Structures are given as C-alpha cells and as structure tokens.
Amino acid sequence: MGPEWGTLLAKRMMSTERRPPKEREAEKVRIALAEIPPTLQEVKLKQHKLGGLDPKELSELTRKCHLFGSIDLSGWKGVRLLSFRSLCLAVGGSLQTVDLSRTETTNEMLGVFAARLFCLRTINLTSCRQVTTKGVQYIARGCPNMSVLNLYHCGKVKNGALLALSKHCPRLVSLNVALIGRVTDAGVSALSRGCRSLQALNIAGAKEASVTERGVCCLAQNCPGLHTLNITGCVEVGLAGLHGLIEGVGPALVQEAKTFFGFIPQRSMIDRRIEESHKAIELAAVRAIQPVIEAMLEDRKQELQHAAVVRIQATVRGWIGLKRCAAWGEVKRQRMRDIEISSGKIQARQCALFPRANLAE
Q1: What proportions of the chain, in percent to the nearest 5, are helix, strand and coil?
Q2: Tens of pLDDT along 154-163?
Q3: Which CATH number is 20-266 given?
Q4: pTM as predicted
Q5: 237 within 8 A of 211, measured Cβ to Cβ
Q6: What is the residue extent of each domain of the chain?
Q7: Could you tell me if residue 238 is left (phi over 0), alpha (psi between -120 and 50 degrees) or otherwise beta?
Q8: Bridge partner residues of 148 (DSSP)
Q9: Which of 274, 223, 276, 273 lies closest to 248, judged by CA?
Q10: Tell me, what's the pLDDT at 45?
Q11: What is the rounded CA–CA span in Å between residue 175 and residue 148?
C-alpha cells in the first residue's frame, strides 16, 4: 500500500511541475490573492508577463476587498467585458481612481463602467486605441463627478468628446487630450463654458488641430483657475498670441513654459495654491471634527450632571437619615425620661400609701 501511494504522489508532483507556464502563473496569482487583506485601499495589477486578467481572479479580489478606492490595470492584455462587469458590480460604490492605460479597453467596457461606477473621479485611458468618442460620451454621462481624465494618444477620439465633457462634467479639473483625432475651436469653447473649474489642459499634437487664438482666449476668460496649458502643434496660435494670453491670465500667476508651447504656473502661485489647499484641508478637518467634539462634550456634560444629581441625592438622603436618627434618639431619651419620672411617681405613691412600712425600714 505504501509504495503505491508514494508512486501516485510522485506522479502528481511531476504533473504539477509539467504544467504550462500560464497555469503556474495563474496558481501564483491565486496564492497572492489569498494573502491580500480585506482592508486594502489601493490595488496595483500592472500586467507585463501574464497573458490576461482572469474574471474569476478579479471576482475573488473584489469579493475580499470590496471597499478599495483605486485600481491600476495598466498594461493588461486580453481584458474582457466579464472582468469589467464583475469589478463594477463589486466596487461600484467606492472606486474613485481607475488606470486602464495601454489596455484593450473598448467602448462597451466603458459603458459598463459608466453605468455602475458612481464615485469615479479619475480615469486614465492613455493609448487605448479602441476607445472612440462614443466611449468618452458614456463616461461623461455616467460619471458627472469626474475631475481628472487622461485621453493621451487615443487617436479615435474627436471633438465630440469635448462637447460631451462640457455638458456633463462641470467639476473637471484636468484634461489631457494630446494626440487625439480632432480638436476645434468649438470644442475648446464649449469646454471652457461647461468646465469652469478647469485648471490644466493639454491639446498638443492633435491630428486635425484647428484651434485658434479665439478658442484659447475663451479658455482664459471662462476658466479663472487655469494655470497649465499645452497647445504645442496648434499652428494658428502664434507667440504673440501666447504672450497676450499670459497677460490676460496674469503674469503674476503663469509664465511661459520652456519645454512646450504654452504656459505653466508661477512658483508663487504654486505656493499660494498649496497654502490654500492646506487651509481648505484644515477647515474641512475642523468641520468634520467639531460635531464629534461637541457630541463628546455633550455626553460628558450629561455624565457630570448625572453624577452631580446622584451625589446630591446621596447627600440629601444622608442628611435626612442623620435627622431621623437624631429624632429617634431624642424620642428614645424622652421615653427613658418618661419611664424614670413614672417610676419616681410610683415610689412616691407607695410612700404615701404605706408610711409605716417606710418608717420601719
């Protein structure tokens, strides 16, 4: 019996070692997923060696860590719609940042994303060659709270994407549409009117760029917080137009960039923005902590009031007890006096009734 079982075990081990590389890698992934803590907040699954993202593995990950807010899937090959659907169904209420750069993401996948990811704020679609204007429209309609969008080198995305973002994403802060299909004055002007919180815009190197100084001026007029602009390749905007744009925004706020055609924020402006952000964070922290402190003080106040009431009640009861004891003592002494007086009267009566007996004594 023993040698037979040993032979079977050896054959099983040999068959395990002879498995294809993909199966061995999948086994490593499953082991790694089993060791992931359920309190994970950020997931980085950059794919360089494996052949694809298994929907079962992603489902296992989302089942264990259903509250993480950031996931990095950049570089994965063979990502399928089923994987996206399982991800969205599991973490739709908590996911805020998604990196899908250099993946085979399609418009249908983005439609699944937009239908479920309500809290999504940052999306990176760099070099997603299959994404078109329709996919960006899905994202714009489904993610109105989006603040950062990167569409770098998405060649099939055109001017309609800017129009959709201007209608549905008023909180957009940073947009990178460099090397996309087409950008016009109409798209830039609509973006400036609909996304007034815009701070950084990159429209460099569009294949059919027809942005003029008119569209750029709309950005300066409608987006007061704009501090970074890259218009490299917009041949209809000259150096004089750029200098005029910097004068319009404010030389104290922005300066001409040295590495690209456009402008960047001044150092003093960066410091001021950092200070403002710190103040905003402190104010938000105070507003968040103040109700908690007030609740704690109120609870402590009630505890002190209850303790004071209990102490006062104990003092009053003690005082009442002492008074009652004193009263009972006085009553007892009075009774003793009454008994003594009564006994004295009895003796006096006896003396009065039997005087001879008393004399004999």
Answers
A1: 55, 10, 35
A2: 989 999 999 9
A3: 3.80.10.10
A4: 0.67
A5: yes
A6: 20-266, 267-361
A7: beta
A8: 122, 174
A9: 223
A10: 67
A11: 6
